[in-house]
Amino acid sequence: MALTTEQAWFNEARFGMFVHWGAFSAGGLEPSWPLVGGVSAFPACQDLTVAEYEAVTARFAPPPDAVTRWAALARRAGMTYIVLTTKHHDGYTLFPQGRSGYGITQVDPGRDLVREHVEAARAEGLRVGLYYSLPDWHHPDYPAWSDNLRPYPGPFYPRPEPERWEAFRADLFREVEHLLSAYGQIDVLWFDGGWERSPDEWQAKELEARIRELQPGIIINDRLPGVGDVITPEQAVPRPPPDGPWETCLTMGDSWGPVEADTVRKSTRAVLATLLDVAAAGGNLLLNISPDGDGVVPAWQEDRLRGLTAWMDGHGHTVVGTTPSDLEPWQFNGPSTAKGSSTFLFCTMRPEGLVLLRGVHAGKITSIRVVGTDVALTFTPQLSALDRILNNTDPVCDVHIDIPPGAADPLVTVIEVVTDH
Question: Which of 67, 111, 122, 302 gives 20 to 30 Å between its CA and that of 73?
Answer without folding.
Answer: 111
